[in-house]
Amino acid sequence: MSRVLLFAPLLGACSGIQPMPPDQPCREAGYAIAARTFACTEDAELANARYERFEADYVCVPIDLNEAPENPANFPEDDYFHCAYAIDGLSCEEVLRRGEDLDAWLRASNACPYVVQRRDGEAYWESDAGSDTGGAP
Amino acid sequence: MTAAWLLLSTFAWAQNQGGFIYGTPGTRNDCEGNAPIAGTAGYRNARAAITTNSQVFSAATFAERELFPLLAQAAQADTDGRFAVSLYEQAATFGVTDVPTVETSYPFGSCPQEYRLAMRPLDLGAGAFGFAGRLGRLGYFYSSSVAFSATGFGGSYTRAMMSASYMIYLPAAVMLAPLNWDEDFGVSTISSDFIAGASYNGALGSVYAGYVSGRGGYLHFGEDRLGGFASALADRGLDERPAYLSAGFKGVQTPVGRTALYGRKLPITAPPGYAEQPTVDEDGNDTTAVLPIEAEPPRVPLRTVHLQQYDLFGRLDVLAAVSWSPEPIVHEAMLGLHSPGFGEAEAGWSLRVGTAALPDMYYYGVEGGNYVSARAEFYGRMDDDDGGGSTRLEGSILYNDAEQLSLYPYARGALSANIRVAGRY
């Protein structure tokens, strides 16, 4: 983990809006896993550990910003952000059931494979017979 | 014929400018039809920052942080036991978090394509006013406040100018705060409240008891001579544990200057999840909305101990803070320089530079690390000729300051500006 002294964010405080990084929807899925873990277990260390596993075991698929959906406010399931949105909306019962199975977390939405893939190339949605939303896109 | 030619020329000009009369070219300043994206860390952080801002700059906290100490100072200068103080404060924090947004006005707006999906900084603002006085042992106090938030305008200059303009009419909003005209839309919100109560000044110190609009009771004890204090705010009802606790001494004169030693517990709140929740209003209309799953998400306390030594050699300040929960890290280490007689002279300045450290917080979408921290302060004071009163103006600019990071732990690179005007009568 890089530990750096940050002067650069001063630009962030004073600048206006910035284009979204192409891997933002993917990282949001990892952040959502950490956030729901913290909210449902009250364990901040476990939340961080799950995000670090997400970074280690999965790779982000950069999105094409020119192909953003027309009306993401409605959160259609093929929306890039539906993955994070669906994870963020998991109840604590669903969170505890998924536990350390990050594949199961990412099966919360059919949109997850659009933005995040397993680093080993395995398809995390194919082996799931009892997922919340079903098969691959 | 001439009119037709002019009309054709106008369309030709529009074609050259943007090809479509409703799609005239623009800059990022024109990306004003944006919507925050729920489910993202930036959205959760924004909602948390809005809550914190309204708590920190609530009327009760303002009274404890600024009004009561001012009253205690006035008590030391008073001779007949009848005196009053008043105070006005404005604060702004720029870039407390970046909110992922989508430009929903496309393709009929002038927002450039590269900003259609964007990271938009959230700015917080607040204003508070209060007065307090004593008539012998008994006293009174009142304060009102307004806190608000908005995602910044697209361009840097537009954002700065718009921020400056809304600060101009903020005092009027603060005066009208008791009307409770709250609004809460996504990440653009405004909240207002007030506190009113009575105080008793005894031999050991002062007790303040009051009522906070819409939140409940408030009790504070202040020890005036040594600066000792203890307070509790029952923001979830009097039967629950207080969200904020602090105790210690904030200003004991020692042979090497002025020393402060105190402990503090600040809550780090777990970000609640957000999901679409179907609701129906009284008239049977569908009011389905994206709402928090947990109404009261769990809190993990950030416990810190602060040792602060001011006025070393008359000019230097050394400040350190250590947190031992959730993990032992150096929370703050700062070295400061100030003008001679800072705090006592009629005018002065102070500049501190150091580091602030926070752990990884992926649940907030941020990495931990050491952050450059800076704090600049200034003040000026005018005393009445007869010595019966005084007016004081002071301001500060904070960058990655430990106080900011404790309140907004996801804020990296946030810049805060604060100005206060205080009067003693």
Structural commentary:
The complex is a heterodimer of chains A (137) and B (425). Chain A is mainly alpha-helical and 137 residues long. Helix content of chain A is 45%, strand content 6%. Chain A has 7 helices and 3 strands; from the N terminus they run H-E-H-H-E-H-H-H-H-E. Chain A has a two-stranded antiparallel ribbon with strand order 2-3. The termini of chain A are far apart. The N terminus and C terminus of chain A are likely disordered. Chain B is an alpha+beta fold and 425 residues long. Chain B is built from 6 helices and 21 strands. In chain B, the strands form 2 sheets. Chain B has a 16-stranded antiparallel β-barrel. In chain B, strands 13-14 form a two-stranded antiparallel sheet. In chain B, strand 9 and strand 10 form a beta hairpin. The longest helix of chain B has 19 residues. Chain B is globular, with a radius of gyration of 25 Å. Strand 1 of chain A pairs antiparallel with strand 4 of chain B, so a sheet runs across the interface.
Amount of beta strand of chain B: over 45%
Beginning-to-end CA distance, first to last residue of chain B? 76 Å
* Rg from Cα of chain A: 16 Å
How many beta-strand segments of chain B?
21
Biggest β-sheet of chain B, characterized?
16 strands, antiparallel, barrel
| Shape estimate of chain B | globular
Low-confidence stretches of chain A: 1-12, 71-75, 127-137
How are strands sequenced across the largest beta sheet of chain A?
Answer: 2-3
Strand content of chain A: 5-15%
Helix-strand pattern of chain B: HEHHEEEEHHEEEEEEEEEEEEEEEHE
Spans of chain B with pLDDT under 50 lasting ≥5 residues?
10-19, 231-243
Helix content of chain A: 40-55%
List the helices and strands and how they pair.
The complex is a heterodimer of chains A (137) and B (425).
Chain A: H1 9-14, E1 18-19, H2 24-41, H3 44-57, E2 58-60, H4 82-88, H5 92-98, H6 102-106, H7 112-115, E3 116-118
Antiparallel strand pairs in A: 2-3
Chain B: H1 2-17, E1 34-36, H2 41-56, H3 59-77, E2 82-94, E3 98-103, E4 117-135, E5 138-151, H4 156-168, H5 170-175, E6 183-185, E7 188-201, E8 206-212, E9 216-222, E10 228-233, E11 245-254, E12 257-269, E13 274-277, E14 289-292, E15 299-312, E16 316-325, E17 329-338, E18 347-358, E19 369-383, E20 390-399, H6 402-407, E21 415-424
Antiparallel strand pairs in B: 1-3, 2-4, 2-21, 3-4, 4-5, 5-7, 6-7, 7-8, 8-9, 9-10, 10-11, 11-12, 12-15, 13-14, 15-16, 16-17, 17-18, 18-19, 19-20, 20-21
